[in-house]
Amino acid sequence: MQDKFTFKYAIIRIVPKVEREEFFNVGVILFCKRKKYMDIKYSIDKEKLKAFSCQVELNVLEEYLNAWKLICKGDSSSGKIGQLEISERFGWLTASRSTIIQSSKTYSGLLIEPQKMLDIIFEKHVL
């Protein structure tokens, strides 16, 4: 029997008008300390974004989410946050904030393969 590892994840949300507290899911961030794995998977539905707000620019959201991906990877171009230890980066990305891109509370579980679990959660909560 293969070993299972604990993991944490959060759903990434777009909140076009923060004051209205309406959101839709666009991605998932998953962290597994024992596997030294953290990644984000996202997809923004252009039509859904327009339905929520025509004032938000898709390319700006994609730039921010790409920055989150760089932070997940610990890329040096992501600044000081990207240089933090992996669990600190996960904590920073999933911290409560009142901006246009937010994350849900964190959830946990057991996994064998992090990438496969990321795909499963993404399909269940985003697509």
Describe the structure.
By secondary structure, the chain is α+β, with helices and mostly antiparallel strands. It has one domain. The protein has helices at 46-52, 58-73, 79-82, 86-93, 114-125; strands at residues 5-14, 24-32, 37-42, 101-103, 107-111. Strands 1, 2, 3, 4 and 5 form a five-stranded antiparallel sheet that branches. A hairpin with a 4-residue loop joins strand 2 and strand 3. The longest helix has 16 residues, at 58-73. It is globular and about 45 Å long.
Count of DSSP strands: 5
Number of domains: 1
Give the overall shape. globular
Report low-confidence residues grouped into runs of 5 or more.
none
Q: State the assembly state of the protein chains.
A: single chain
* Beta content: 25-35%
Mean pLDDT: 92
Instruction: Report how far apart the termini are.
Output: 31 Å
Order of helices and strands: EEEHHHHEEH
Task: Annotate the secondary structure layout.
Layout: E1 5-14, E2 24-32, E3 37-42, H1 46-52, H2 58-73, H3 79-82, H4 86-93, E4 101-103, E5 107-111, H5 114-125
Antiparallel strand pairs: 1-2, 1-4, 1-5, 2-3
Keywords for this entry:
five-stranded antiparallel sheet; alpha+beta; single chain; globular; 127 residues; 37% helix
Brief write-up:
The chain has 127 residues and is an alpha+beta fold. It is 37% helix and 26% strand.
